[in-house]
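note to self — DONT lose this again. spent like an hour looking for the file last time. sequence + predicted structure for the chain T wanted, 256 res
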Amino acid sequence: MAEQRIVVLAGPGAPSNILVHSLRSHFQLAGVIMEGPQDKWQLLKRRAARIGWMKTTGQVFFLLAVVPILKWTSAKRRNEILRSHGLNEGALPETGVTHVTSVNDESTIAALQGLRPDVVVVSGTRVIRHQLLSAVDVPFLNIHAGITPRYRGIHGLYWALMNDDAANAGVTVHLVDKGIDTGGVIAQAHVPHAPADNFTTYPLLQLAKGIELLTAALHDHADGKFNGHRREMDSRLWHHPTLLQYLTGRWRKGVK
């Protein structure tokens, strides 16, 4: 297998920490570029501009009233998943990490070009603009928590269950393009879950499986056996459920 220079573009948080720790156990990373947190009020305003304030408010109520309870009641299950898959969500050492305000800043382009990547892995960043994608002529890869193109956006496994579409409750490794989760598919897999799982543990199961797929894809890239393809299926961009959507789905369908 040929050596390759892998750079990770990441947003702050446990999923990015898990991904970087996992990749470092398989590869010698050329570097990690970590962007700062996004302004939550600006995020809310942009979301409301797309879907309206009523639905956005319902999502906020869900995140504030339900998610903390789900996290508390599933803490044991979360730790079980971390242990069984050997996942480490601890803070990253600063060695090899470059901090930027936004993944789309000019400083990010300069840092990325300076690292001379053969492939870029993306994790939890803002939507990447064309200027960055075109700054280096290499593939950008992302683990998406859903089967694309049917479940773009976030929480694809949860929405698949809500739609009685368990066959598409899974994860995708795909190429990053200028759209939102619209790039060519590298690999996809179904992600099984247990009765103890819920909205807060589904993404962790997806990440664990996604890391397996990504690791294989990076090995394939080094061996020159790497390609993406388009899937022909219905497509939709999904967001957080509102409080009413979640409670209705749990009562009618038992989806946690």
